[in-house]
Design a protein that fits this description.
There is one protein chain. This protein is an alpha+beta fold and 343 residues long. It starts with 34 loop residues before the first helix and ends in a 38-residue tail after the last helix. The chain contains 7 helices and 8 strands, in the order αβββαβααααββββα. It has one domain.
Length: 343
């Protein structure tokens, strides 16, 4: 990507959110269930103000419907004409990079063995990641707070299915209709998610390909963790909160002689919530997509403004989240998602 973004000495960052950062907040948990979940109006659809959403336009963060929290989707170029491996050989010494801590609760991390390294992922950390859904490991379901073992297992299964659809299902990535994912959510959440797909504000939790983008036959490589816990919102509604943190690495078709020039990386964290069935009305029962944050690597800025992924046109830039950072750092699920926007 063109090198006209902020320098490490003067990074461009969004205004601080009006609520604490969900990864450093107290045990109140990440996000809350809106008031109408506890005191619903039978005929009223939830307004956009009930949900915090991300809107990326002209490389700035905006709020949808007056939402209270700001979430940043950032992106940066990765590989130059010399190729990823060549850059590692002659690059300046890398700097330590900021990381995030695992949230509290029961968790599982990717444990499946990777396939033999071959093709576009060779020479990148993704060569050691499992293929596709094999990289999504679920923690053991246990009775947690008011949620039975069976309820926890059902919630985890719903989250896994949604992840596979949103990030790995090639039919979903190219379909005009996003209902394959939307219908997996609670009925009262679906209007909000449909609005995201209409506005293009879905890239933090779903992969859609631009009209010129084509994936190779290679399955995406996946690494990360899933954590869950029982908590309550400020109004006392009981929720099972599932936090997913994954690095998804795709191989795009490219005419470059360096196959790794076609590697695109998405690192996201998503907060999913399942309210206790006794605390909400029937249409609010089920899976909620509550918060999402992400950065992506080696994509076209104009395409990403529309929410879709395409390889950057022309020559990718040699850069990471900061100029002195080892490009390998972007593949670490513990890398902070609070990075500068170079576009």
């Amino acid at each position: 990507m063109t090198d006209h973004g902020p320098t490490p000495e003067s990074p461009h960052r969004p205004d601080p959110p009006s609520h604490p950062d969900p990864w450093t907040a107290s045990t109140d948990g990440l996000g809350t269930v809106p008031d109408w979940l506890r005191h619903p109006q039978p005929d009223a659809e939830p307004s956009a103000a009930d949900r915090r959403r991300i809107w990326l336009s002209q490389h700035s963060v905006k709020l949808l419907g007056g939402a209270a929290a700001l979430l940043l989707l950032t992106f940066f170029g990765l590989v130059g004409t010399a190729g990823y491996r060549a850059f590692q050989r002659w690059g300046e010494p890398s700097a330590a990079y900021p990381t995030i801590s695992a949230p509290p609760g029961e968790q599982a991390v990717t444990s499946a063995s990777p396939p033999p390294a071959a093709g576009p992922f060779d020479g990148t950390p993704a060569a050691a990641f499992p293929e596709g859904a094999a990289g999504i490991a679920l923690p053991a379901a246990k009775r947690t707070g008011p949620f039975t073992e069976k309820q926890v297992a059902a919630a985890l299964a719903k989250v896994r299915k949604a992840l596979v659809t949103a990030r790995l299902d090639r039919s979903f990535m190219t379909a005009k209709d996003p209902e394959r994912l939307i219908r997996q959510l609670a009925p009262d959440d679906r209007a909000n998610i449909r609005a995201d797909f209409i506005s293009g504000a879905f890239a933090n939790y779903a992969t859609r390909l631009g009209p010129e983008a084509r994936l190779t036959k290679h399955q995406p490589r996946v690494k990360g963790r899933v954590t869950y816990r029982a908590t309550r919102d400020k109004d006392g509604i009981r929720v099972l909160e599932v936090i997913t943190n994954f690095v998804w690495v795709y191989a795009f078709q490219t005419t470059s002689p360096n196959p790794d020039d076609g590697v695109v990386l998405v690192h996201d964290t998503v907060v999913w919530q399942v309210p206790h069935q006794n605390d909400v009305r029937a249409n609010s029962n089920g899976l909620w997509l509550w918060e999402a944050d992400a950065y992506v690597v080696n994509v076209d800025c104009a395409a990403l403004d529309k929410g879709v992924l395409e390889l950057e046109a022309g020559m990718p830039a040699l850069s990471g989240p900061v100029d002195t950072e080892d490009p390998d750092a972007a593949y670490d699920p513990d890398h902070t998602l609070d990075v500068a926007d170079p576009c």
